Amino acid sequence: MSNNPSSKVELTSRNYLAEAKMRNHFAVIDEPLDKGGDDNGPTPVEYLLTAIGGCVAITLRMYAERKGWDLGKITVNVNQKQELTPNGIKKSLIEEISFEKEVTEEQRAKLLEIAAKCPVAKMVKEATEIDSKITS
């Protein structure tokens, strides 16, 4: 088995309902009713936001454990922001991180630096190359 993460997504014949398989796990992807879907699951963008939030939280927990810091529960809220600019719509992400336990200003600064090292967020920030091809 390869160590490279992968996901297989199949779009069903039901509007925009897709089924995804990752290792031994399954997920459903859909669009909301007002976008032509049946709202059977999160949208692709919602999964991306979730992936970033999950990765940031896990990255912070791993770092805190190595440092012996008890952060308690880590919460990461990731939201997409859209603004109309003279060049069209600009999209960005807002990431809000909070900890159940108190952290010092020094810890806060270091944790913010570590959060930026989350591999999923780095993939998005660095515009990871995607090599697309059609196979039979």
From TrEMBL:
Entry-linked PANTHER family: OSMC-LIKE PROTEIN, PROTEIN INVOLVED IN RIMO-MEDIATED BETA-METHYLTHIOLATION OF RIBOSOMAL PROTEIN S12 YCAO
Family annotation (Pfam families): OsmC (PF02566)
Name under which the protein is recorded: Putative redox protein
SUPFAM superfamilies listed in its UniProt record: OsmC-like
